[in-house]
Amino acid sequence: MRHLLSAGDLTRDEAVLVLDTAAELARISGRSVKKFPTLRGRTVVNLFYEDSTRTRTSFELAAKRMSADVINFSAKGSSVSKGESLKDTALTLQAMGADGVVIRHGSAGSAHRLAGWVDGAVLNAGDGTHEHPTQALLDVYTMRERMGRVDGLRVAIVGDILHSRVARSNVLLLHTLGAEVTLVAPPTLMPVSVPTWPCAVSYDLDEVLPKSDVVMMLRVQAERMKDAFFPTAREYSRRYGLDRDRFARLQDGAIVMHPGPMVRGMEISAEVADSARSTVNEQVTNGVSVRMAVLYLLLGGSGSAIGNQGD
Amino acid sequence: MHKTLEAESAYLIRGARIAGGDPGDILIRDGVIADIGTGLTADDAEPVDAEGLIALPGLVDLHTHLREPGREDAETVASGARAAAMGGYTAVHAMANTDPVADTAGVVEQVWRLGRESGHCDVQPVGAVTRGLDGRHLAELGAMADSVARVRVFSDDGMCVSDALLMRRALEYVKAFDGVVAQHAQEPRLTEGAQMNEGVVSDRLGLTGWPAVAEEAIIARDCLLTEHVGSRLHVCHVSTKGSVQILRWAKGRGCDVTAEVTPHHLLLTDELAETYDPIYKVNPPLRTAEDVHALREGLADGTIDCVATDHAPHPIEAKEAEWANAAMGMVGLETALSVVQHTMVDTGMLDWAGVADRMSIAPARIGRLTGHGRPIAVGEPANVTLYDAGAKRDIDPAAMASKSRNTPYQGMRVPGRVVATFLRGAPTVLKGKIQ
Ligand SMILES: [Zn+2]
To answer: Which CATH class is domain A7-132+284-298?
Structure first.
């Protein structure tokens, strides 16, 4: 792996390696060794054009736990907000000797563009409505932890598929790992070519829920109704929200996931979000381990470097 | 105008295949074709060895963005005219979306004069349909038609005349001076924020889609409007299979509609966006292989009347950006003939006489351009392009005459090279070099 731009770039073996590495790192961290020296002397830049404290903090924590030097390069208050182009910013980072750049950007493909301009590894932390591969990795990691496997899992992804980078990355990664994905949304929030995607499609949440091991709820912005994607937030919630009644019809052992931030009352009700089946908080914890693993695999140390720590 | 003097001299083109026919000689004198035959001699004429070269009537572009006035950093009338000459063109239609917009007699006359001064290519201004391309108020179309620029083609290109009533009025109004409305067919509401062709690739890349129906719906509407008011419609840069089908149907009904296709839509597909390199970002967007095939067939059977470049120069920084923030458009004047050879001639879909029609005769007729698009025959204006179809060349943006470098063909090996271009008997290009 040279960069991580799309979840689709990962082979099955590579994806499993990331998950196994993350599990190993989590296991060792759990025994109180909070820091690994593996990336000492390496510089990781967090280049965030979109406000996302949770994702930025997760990457920052992951890099620091691997002993990397972290530079936060947020768009606000820097030359970036004064109209400096992404290319010029890239050349600056290059001159600074960044070994890895974690980029969050509002435009699809910006991570790809950046990868063409810097020598260091580029890690896509969300590019517009394209992808968010580490989110998919941490989601899959969480599924594997909770359910004991990914292969053959029936996963429903519910919500604004059209505008969701989380959905795109999850569909690709889950397909690679053998899960059966069903996308659920009103037809307006489904991409036109979705029948060509490696997943099933349904407009009926009630039909899909009882057959799902995992239900992943995506955030739906109420403003979408201004563009006539759905008539009202209330109707959306009634047809596609995970409320208490629907929650009661889930299979025993099924889990509910959400990439956050949640809109309680819109796509998910408060009691569902706070229930024992909800993995929302684990996803946050797992996010750090998965990002540590990705940084480690992208930036380097040898395969034994982890094993030598802690034990 | 220094070119006028040179036009007094004579050239004897030896051994050229006129529109791909048998080799012969063409004697050019005093700006006209003085003689055609074999074994011609003329002591006063400078000989031009054209053995193995194709002679085409000077190419005519119906759709060129020259950027002057307003964006002289991207292109000027003079640099665009040189690029046109290098591409084998003797006349180009300069689109109206400049700054200020070419929506008055004053601006179109300015562009027309700049073209005359350049001397490398005739520059025929296109007038805007609406004031400032606002889509709501008709520009003074009559004043532009009556100006020295003699505007006959009117277009808000870059923007669609989306208001159906305004489109109807424009179509009706231009009948008074045999004008034509050239429509950039793009339903605006269906293409808000659109970045690329809507389909499998856009969905995968997470880029907002530009659906084919947004073009096709406008074309269908405008064909019906044109028929209703008995006017003349030209459709710019047709890009979809459905558009070709609608045009075929409309022509079958007797609608007076013509259409153009760009070289890039004859060759490139939306899969190129996978690189996220906005050198491939253009409006209308690159479509699918199925569309490309339908466009080639449409051009071959005459459903699409002509090839137009939509030459759209942009400075480097406008393309060195994230896809969504990058400018739309590609330069095309210096590669058009090669791409047409590659896609239409080398595939057996069009012969050289067909190329002469689609790239010179038809566009001149649609634009009501006198003195261009005439057959290579005795007594006709000596607008002639000599083309080496057997050559191969690697596209080098840095070597282009255009001020801008945004070609999608960088590094690509293409067939053919323009060896010479004559504008009213004066060489604007000779031995592949600008004169
Ligand atoms: Zn246009």
So the answer is: alpha beta
Q: Which of B222, B305, B310, B388 is catalytic?
A: B310
**Pairing state between β B32-37 and A255-257:** unpaired
Task: Give the integer Cα–Cα distance in Å for B228 and B207.
Answer: 38
* Strand-pair partners of B415: B392
Q: State phi, psi for A123 to the nearest 5 degrees.
A: -120, 115
The answer to whether residue B396 is catalytic is no
Q: Burial-class residue B377 by CB neighbours within 10 Å (0-12, 13-18, 19+).
A: exposed
Inspect the interface and report whether the beta carbons of A108 and B205 lie closer than 8 Å.
Answer: yes
Q: Give the fold, CATH level 3, of B58-366.
A: TIM Barrel (3.20.20)
Which residues from chain A sit within 8 angstroms of residue B199, using beta carbons?
A: 192-193
The fold adopted by the segment(s) A133-279 is Rossmann fold (3.40.50)
Instruction: Give the minimum alpha-carbon distance from B205 to chain A in angstroms, rounded to a whole number.
Output: 5
Q: Shortest CA distance to B76 belongs to which of B410, B407, B435, B402? A: B402
Between B205, B209, B211, which is nearest A109 by CB? B205
- For each of chain B's 435 residues, which pLDDT tens digit applies? 444 444 458 999 999 999 999 999 999 999 999 999 999 999 999 999 999 999 999 999 999 999 999 999 999 999 999 999 999 999 999 999 999 999 999 999 999 999 999 999 999 999 999 999 999 999 999 999 999 999 999 999 999 999 999 999 999 999 999 999 999 999 999 999 999 999 999 999 999 999 999 999 999 999 999 999 999 999 999 999 999 999 999 999 999 999 999 999 999 999 999 999 999 999 999 999 999 999 999 999 999 999 999 999 999 999 999 999 999 999 999 999 999 999 999 999 999 999 999 999 999 999 999 999 999 999 999 999 999 999 999 999 999 999 999 999 999 999 999 999 999 999 999 999 999
Contact yes or no for A193 and B203 at CB 8 A? yes
Strand order through the sheet with A43-48? A69-74, A43-48, A100-105, A121-127
For B51, counting Cβ atoms within 10 Å of its Cβ (0-12 exposed, 13-18 middle, 19+ buried), the class is exposed
Amino acid at A149: R
Considering CB atoms only, which of B198, B199, B324 is closest to A107? Answer: B324
Q: Are B95 and B126 in contact (CB under 8 A)?
A: yes
- The interface predicted TM-score (ipTM) is 0.90
- C-alpha separations of B338 from B351, B390, B422 in Å: 14, 11, 18
Amino acid at A235: E
DSSP state string for B225-248: HHHHHT--EEE-S---HHHHHHHH
Taking the CA of residue A132 as centre, how many other CA atoms within 13 Å lie in the half-sphere pointing to its CB? 24
> Model-level pTM greater than 0.90?
yes
Cα(B347) to ligand 1 centroid in Å equals 27
State how far residue B347 is from chain A, nearest Cα, in angstroms: 31
Q: How far is the C-alpha of A167 from the C-alpha of B288, rounded, in Å?
A: 25
Q: Which DSSP state fits B95?
A: P
Domain boundaries, chain A: 7-132+284-298, 133-279
Contacts of B320 in chain A (CB under 8 A): 85, 87
> In CATH terms, are B10-54+380-434 and B58-366 the same topology?
no
DSSP-assigned states of every residue in B168-197? HHHHHHGGGGT-EEEE----TGGGTT--EE
Residue boundaries of the structural domains of chain B: 10-54+380-434, 58-366
Closest CA to B251 of B291, B212, B219: B219
Q: Does domain B10-54+380-434 sit in CATH 3.40.50.2030?
A: no
Distance from CA of B77 to the nearest CA of A (A): 29
3-class secondary-structure state, position B404: coil
CA distance A2 to B431: 48
